[in-house]
Design goal:
Arc Repressor Mutant, subunit A; 2 domains; 10 helices; 7 strands; 15% strand; disordered N terminus
Length: 239
Amino acid sequence: MNDTSVATHGFSMATGTPAADTAADVTTILIVDDHRSFADLLSAALDTVPGMRCVGTASAAAEGVAKAAALRPSIVVMDIQMPRQDGLQATRQIREAVPETLVAVVTAHRDPDWVSRAAQAGASAFIPKDGSLAEMIDVLRNVRAGKMLVAPGAFRAASSVSADFPATNAPSLTQRELDVLTYLGQGMPAKGIAKVLGITLHTCRGYIKSLHQKLGVSSQLEAVIKAQHLGLIGSSEEA
Protein backbone atom coordinates (compact mmCIF):
# COMPACT_ATOMS: atom_id res chain seq x y z
CA MET A 1 0.00 0.00 0.00
CA ASN A 2 1.15 3.54 -0.55
CA ASP A 3 1.45 6.09 2.23
CA THR A 4 -2.30 6.72 2.31
CA SER A 5 -3.44 5.57 5.73
CA VAL A 6 -6.63 3.63 6.28
CA ALA A 7 -9.26 4.57 8.84
CA THR A 8 -12.59 2.95 9.54
CA HIS A 9 -15.19 5.67 9.86
CA GLY A 10 -16.49 5.88 13.41
CA PHE A 11 -13.15 4.86 14.93
CA SER A 12 -10.63 7.21 13.32
CA MET A 13 -11.75 10.47 11.79
CA ALA A 14 -9.74 11.85 8.92
CA THR A 15 -8.36 15.34 9.16
CA GLY A 16 -7.68 17.89 6.49
CA THR A 17 -9.69 19.99 4.10
CA PRO A 18 -13.20 18.72 3.38
CA ALA A 19 -14.04 17.81 -0.18
CA ALA A 20 -16.44 20.66 -0.89
CA ASP A 21 -17.17 23.36 -3.39
CA THR A 22 -15.98 26.19 -1.14
CA ALA A 23 -17.40 28.92 -3.37
CA ALA A 24 -20.94 27.71 -2.78
CA ASP A 25 -20.25 25.53 0.26
CA VAL A 26 -21.69 22.60 -1.70
CA THR A 27 -20.12 19.20 -2.27
CA THR A 28 -20.49 18.43 -5.96
CA ILE A 29 -20.62 14.77 -6.95
CA LEU A 30 -20.18 12.83 -10.19
CA ILE A 31 -21.45 9.22 -10.23
CA VAL A 32 -19.71 6.67 -12.46
CA ASP A 33 -21.54 3.33 -12.63
CA ASP A 34 -22.59 1.10 -15.53
CA HIS A 35 -25.81 0.20 -13.70
CA ARG A 36 -27.87 3.15 -14.84
CA SER A 37 -30.71 2.60 -12.38
CA PHE A 38 -28.27 2.72 -9.45
CA ALA A 39 -26.64 5.90 -10.77
CA ASP A 40 -29.96 7.63 -11.43
CA LEU A 41 -31.46 6.72 -8.07
CA LEU A 42 -28.32 7.72 -6.19
CA SER A 43 -28.20 11.00 -8.10
CA ALA A 44 -31.80 11.78 -7.16
CA ALA A 45 -31.16 10.82 -3.53
CA LEU A 46 -28.03 12.98 -3.21
CA ASP A 47 -29.83 15.98 -4.66
CA THR A 48 -32.17 15.91 -1.66
CA VAL A 49 -29.28 16.09 0.82
CA PRO A 50 -28.45 19.60 2.05
CA GLY A 51 -24.96 20.63 0.98
CA MET A 52 -24.69 18.02 -1.79
CA ARG A 53 -25.39 18.28 -5.50
CA CYS A 54 -24.98 15.65 -8.20
CA VAL A 55 -23.49 17.33 -11.27
CA GLY A 56 -23.70 14.32 -13.58
CA THR A 57 -23.52 10.58 -14.15
CA ALA A 58 -21.44 8.39 -16.45
CA SER A 59 -22.04 4.78 -17.44
CA ALA A 60 -18.47 3.92 -18.45
CA ALA A 61 -15.03 4.54 -16.95
CA ALA A 62 -13.69 6.54 -19.90
CA GLU A 63 -16.79 8.73 -19.88
CA GLY A 64 -16.35 9.25 -16.15
CA VAL A 65 -12.73 10.37 -16.57
CA ALA A 66 -13.73 12.85 -19.29
CA LYS A 67 -16.63 14.25 -17.25
CA ALA A 68 -14.48 14.55 -14.13
CA ALA A 69 -11.92 16.60 -16.08
CA ALA A 70 -14.66 18.83 -17.49
CA LEU A 71 -16.85 19.23 -14.39
CA ARG A 72 -14.13 19.06 -11.70
CA PRO A 73 -16.49 17.78 -8.99
CA SER A 74 -15.61 17.60 -5.31
CA ILE A 75 -16.09 13.82 -5.29
CA VAL A 76 -16.43 11.08 -7.87
CA VAL A 77 -18.44 8.06 -6.72
CA MET A 78 -16.79 5.26 -8.68
CA ASP A 79 -17.92 1.68 -9.22
CA ILE A 80 -14.99 -0.76 -9.42
CA GLN A 81 -16.34 -3.39 -11.79
CA MET A 82 -17.27 -2.00 -15.20
CA PRO A 83 -16.86 -3.33 -18.74
CA ARG A 84 -13.91 -2.30 -20.94
CA GLN A 85 -12.09 -0.42 -18.16
CA ASP A 86 -12.25 -0.97 -14.40
CA GLY A 87 -12.97 1.75 -11.89
CA LEU A 88 -9.56 1.61 -10.22
CA GLN A 89 -7.78 2.45 -13.47
CA ALA A 90 -10.25 5.28 -13.99
CA THR A 91 -9.57 6.44 -10.42
CA ARG A 92 -5.85 6.76 -11.18
CA GLN A 93 -6.60 8.78 -14.31
CA ILE A 94 -8.97 11.11 -12.48
CA ARG A 95 -6.50 11.72 -9.67
CA GLU A 96 -3.83 12.59 -12.23
CA ALA A 97 -6.10 14.85 -14.30
CA VAL A 98 -7.97 16.52 -11.41
CA PRO A 99 -5.87 16.17 -8.21
CA GLU A 100 -8.33 18.20 -6.13
CA THR A 101 -11.18 15.77 -6.90
CA LEU A 102 -11.55 12.93 -4.42
CA VAL A 103 -12.75 9.46 -5.41
CA ALA A 104 -15.08 7.31 -3.30
CA VAL A 105 -15.11 3.70 -4.47
CA VAL A 106 -18.50 1.98 -4.25
CA THR A 107 -18.31 -1.76 -4.70
CA ALA A 108 -19.78 -5.17 -3.95
CA HIS A 109 -16.27 -6.50 -3.18
CA ARG A 110 -15.77 -7.23 0.53
CA ASP A 111 -12.23 -8.62 0.65
CA PRO A 112 -10.03 -6.20 2.67
CA ASP A 113 -7.44 -6.48 -0.09
CA TRP A 114 -9.69 -4.31 -2.24
CA VAL A 115 -9.27 -1.44 0.23
CA SER A 116 -5.53 -1.61 -0.36
CA ARG A 117 -6.02 -1.68 -4.12
CA ALA A 118 -8.40 1.27 -3.96
CA ALA A 119 -5.98 3.28 -1.79
CA GLN A 120 -3.11 2.54 -4.15
CA ALA A 121 -5.24 3.79 -7.04
CA GLY A 122 -5.78 7.07 -5.16
CA ALA A 123 -9.27 6.57 -3.73
CA SER A 124 -10.19 8.28 -0.47
CA ALA A 125 -13.22 6.22 0.56
CA PHE A 126 -14.45 2.64 0.34
CA ILE A 127 -18.22 2.09 0.52
CA PRO A 128 -20.24 -1.15 0.16
CA LYS A 129 -22.69 -0.95 -2.71
CA ASP A 130 -25.37 -2.81 -0.77
CA GLY A 131 -25.03 -0.64 2.33
CA SER A 132 -27.52 1.94 3.48
CA LEU A 133 -27.94 5.32 1.85
CA ALA A 134 -27.39 6.98 5.23
CA GLU A 135 -24.01 5.25 5.58
CA MET A 136 -22.96 6.36 2.10
CA ILE A 137 -23.97 9.98 2.74
CA ASP A 138 -22.12 9.96 6.07
CA VAL A 139 -18.93 8.78 4.37
CA LEU A 140 -19.26 11.30 1.54
CA ARG A 141 -19.66 14.08 4.10
CA ASN A 142 -16.50 13.07 5.92
CA VAL A 143 -14.15 12.03 3.12
CA ARG A 144 -10.82 13.87 3.19
CA ALA A 145 -7.71 13.97 1.07
CA GLY A 146 -4.82 11.80 2.26
CA LYS A 147 -6.97 9.29 4.15
CA MET A 148 -8.85 6.15 3.20
CA LEU A 149 -12.24 6.31 4.91
CA VAL A 150 -13.84 2.86 5.13
CA ALA A 151 -17.59 2.57 5.68
CA PRO A 152 -18.54 0.48 8.75
CA GLY A 153 -20.54 -1.98 6.64
CA ALA A 154 -17.70 -2.68 4.22
CA PHE A 155 -16.58 -5.97 5.74
CA ARG A 156 -19.78 -7.54 6.96
CA ALA A 157 -19.66 -11.26 6.37
CA ALA A 158 -22.02 -12.78 3.85
CA SER A 159 -24.18 -13.95 6.74
CA SER A 160 -24.53 -10.35 7.90
CA VAL A 161 -25.66 -9.28 4.47
CA SER A 162 -28.23 -12.03 4.49
CA ALA A 163 -29.43 -10.77 7.86
CA ASP A 164 -29.91 -7.31 6.37
CA PHE A 165 -31.69 -8.71 3.31
CA PRO A 166 -33.30 -12.01 4.42
CA ALA A 167 -34.26 -14.01 1.33
CA THR A 168 -36.85 -15.97 3.29
CA ASN A 169 -38.64 -12.86 4.57
CA ALA A 170 -39.57 -11.17 1.32
CA PRO A 171 -42.70 -9.09 1.92
CA SER A 172 -45.95 -9.79 0.14
CA LEU A 173 -46.47 -7.13 -2.53
CA THR A 174 -49.53 -6.36 -4.58
CA GLN A 175 -49.15 -6.54 -8.35
CA ARG A 176 -49.31 -2.76 -8.58
CA GLU A 177 -46.60 -2.37 -5.92
CA LEU A 178 -44.45 -4.84 -7.83
CA ASP A 179 -45.05 -2.87 -11.04
CA VAL A 180 -43.92 0.33 -9.35
CA LEU A 181 -40.91 -1.41 -7.82
CA THR A 182 -39.89 -2.83 -11.21
CA TYR A 183 -39.95 0.62 -12.79
CA LEU A 184 -37.99 2.06 -9.85
CA GLY A 185 -35.39 -0.62 -10.54
CA GLN A 186 -35.13 0.72 -14.09
CA GLY A 187 -34.31 4.17 -12.74
CA MET A 188 -37.67 5.70 -13.65
CA PRO A 189 -38.86 8.66 -11.52
CA ALA A 190 -42.26 8.63 -9.83
CA LYS A 191 -43.73 11.03 -12.40
CA GLY A 192 -42.73 8.74 -15.25
CA ILE A 193 -44.03 5.64 -13.46
CA ALA A 194 -47.39 7.31 -12.87
CA LYS A 195 -47.67 8.16 -16.56
CA VAL A 196 -46.77 4.65 -17.71
CA LEU A 197 -49.19 2.98 -15.27
CA GLY A 198 -51.98 5.48 -15.89
CA ILE A 199 -52.26 6.58 -12.28
CA THR A 200 -51.90 9.92 -10.53
CA LEU A 201 -48.56 11.05 -9.15
CA HIS A 202 -50.14 11.13 -5.67
CA THR A 203 -51.22 7.49 -6.02
CA CYS A 204 -47.79 6.48 -7.29
CA ARG A 205 -46.12 8.13 -4.32
CA GLY A 206 -48.51 6.22 -2.08
CA TYR A 207 -47.30 2.94 -3.59
CA ILE A 208 -43.69 4.03 -3.09
CA LYS A 209 -44.39 4.88 0.55
CA SER A 210 -46.00 1.47 1.01
CA LEU A 211 -42.93 -0.20 -0.55
CA HIS A 212 -40.66 1.67 1.86
CA GLN A 213 -42.72 0.40 4.81
CA LYS A 214 -42.92 -3.21 3.61
CA LEU A 215 -39.22 -3.38 2.71
CA GLY A 216 -38.10 -1.52 5.83
CA VAL A 217 -36.14 1.14 3.94
CA SER A 218 -36.10 4.92 3.82
CA SER A 219 -35.26 5.69 0.19
CA GLN A 220 -36.00 4.52 -3.34
CA LEU A 221 -32.35 3.52 -3.80
CA GLU A 222 -32.43 1.28 -0.73
CA ALA A 223 -35.78 -0.15 -1.86
CA VAL A 224 -34.29 -1.21 -5.19
CA ILE A 225 -31.12 -2.66 -3.66
CA LYS A 226 -33.07 -4.64 -1.06
CA ALA A 227 -35.61 -5.82 -3.63
CA GLN A 228 -32.77 -7.13 -5.78
CA HIS A 229 -31.30 -9.03 -2.82
CA LEU A 230 -34.70 -10.52 -2.04
CA GLY A 231 -35.16 -11.57 -5.66
CA LEU A 232 -38.27 -9.40 -6.10
CA ILE A 233 -36.70 -7.70 -9.12
CA GLY A 234 -33.62 -8.37 -11.22
CA SER A 235 -30.40 -6.36 -11.26
CA SER A 236 -30.43 -3.87 -14.12
CA GLU A 237 -27.52 -4.17 -16.52
CA GLU A 238 -28.70 -1.25 -18.64
CA ALA A 239 -25.83 1.02 -19.69
